[in-house]
Amino acid sequence: MSTPLRLGIAGLGTVGAGVVKIVRQKGNLLADRAGRPVTISAVSARSKDKERGVTLSQYVWEDDPVALATRDDIDVYVELMGGADGPAKASVEAALRAGKDVVTANKAMLAHHGQMLAQLAEDNGAVLRFEAAVAGGIPVIKALTEGLAGNDMDRVMGVMNGTCNYILTRMQSAGLPYAEVFEEANQLGYLEADPTLDVGGIDAGHKLALLASVAFGTQVDFAAVELEGIERITIDDITQAADMGYRIKLLGVAQMSGRGLEQRMSPCLVPATSPLGQLEGGTNMVVLEGDQVEQVVLRGPGAGEGPTASAVMGDVMDIARGFRVSTFGVPAGSLSETTPAKTATPAPYYLRLSLEDKPGALAKLASVLGDAGVSIDRMRQYRHDAGAAPILIVTHKTTRDALDAAITGMDRLDVVKDAPVALRIETV
Question: Which residue is catalytic, options 89, 100, 107, 207?
Fold first, then answer.
């Protein structure tokens, strides 16, 4: 086939500029691999005059992304603006209704509207691809929909926010408190305009919801993701976990149980010697566990111009080759409605608290844990000068409900100072 595949690109920030560069610099390679040229017809962004490090004069400029999405001279609409609603959603809907294929990096839009958009694509004979929306340059969507299509998936988990991993690993390597590393990350430009999207686990939660849909054949249900950010993690947690042979990660886990689909994004302890434990800086890692393949580990850059643009182009090249697959791996009408389930799988927990240093305090604590059915595996008391003693407990396997009951009991004790910090220890 010699007919070019014509792109319309909306959003010319870091990723959009990266896509333009790949198309311009690697035209011959793309044509050889796709069997047809890949070209750009028109582009759109908020500002026409902004310097982007790439020449755009040869492309038609559209101020309105909806107009761009429905142009007769584009075959694929590439949406890189971001945002769950507004122009991004409106333009993607317009493109799909016009029968245009869509490639997007917009995790928020898909996390909130994925089922509707997937159905809209199918109703109009279009495809909607989103490799770049999850884990940057790691081809995890392709792995699930293609390479692992012969597996019933048991569990999907991973570190999917590079900013959080940078903060946690930087705290450990430099011995710096959370607030100082947070500000450092902000100065380096790592944080979203609303930092809560990163450190609150929302960004990674969007990604987990999409992965869960593909892995388990369910409708995207971001509202059911249990979210807990890293804001309460202290340098003491970092160092004390290390003393026990663990590292702290903002870990997303999705698995299907008899009670329904469990989805949680929360700080967890993982063995320091595990692949996840050894993950440094802004790198992402996704672990896929299937009944036939057992465990597959994918590691790579989770953000940035090159990695994300690479993922966008992977989807573009599939379309150029004529490869068409349902948005979430199966027809939208076949995706089952989720039955959300709180995590009930027992696990050991890390528990940090401050206990008044007086006779009988430890006995009161042990009594509350015992009444809740939580048994202690290991306990450590750190040297202190003040009147409150730092206590670290690692429990035997228990449920989160039992642990929450114990924490509620601790809140009523006059010997417990400050709210305890509880982190799940995940088997990886």
Answer: 207
> Longest Cα pair distance anywhere in the chain, in angstroms?
83
Q: What letter represents residue 172's amino acid? A: Q
Is 207 assigned a catalytic role?
yes
Domain 349-425 has CATH 3.30.70.260: yes
Residue 164 has phi, psi (to 5 degrees) of -65, -40
In the chain, which segments carry CATH 3.30.360.10? 140-302
Q: CATH code for 5-133? A: 3.40.50.720
280 backbone φψ class: left, alpha, beta (φ>0; ψ -120 to 50): beta
pLDDT at residue 191 in the model = 79
Segment 369-427, tens digit of pLDDT: 999 999 999 888 877 666 778 888 999 999 999 999 999 998 888 888 888 889 999 98
Spell out where 150-225 has E strands. 153-159
Alpha carbon dihedral 240, 244, 249, 250, in 10-degree steps, equals -70
21, HSE (Cβ side, Cα atoms, 13 Å):
16
Pick the CATH number of 140-302 from 3.30.360.10, 1.10.760.10, 3.40.50.2300, 1.20.1440.230: 3.30.360.10
Q: Is the dihedral of CA 175, 179, 180, 181 positive or negative?
A: positive
The pLDDT assigned to 398 comes to 94
> What sign does the CA torsion over 37, 41, 135, 127 have?
negative
In this predicted structure, the answer to whether residue 1 has a pLDDT above a threshold of 60 is no
Q: At what angle do helices 86-97 and 107-123 cross, to 10 degrees?
A: 20
- Residue 242: which of 82, 381, 350, 375 has the closest Cα? 350
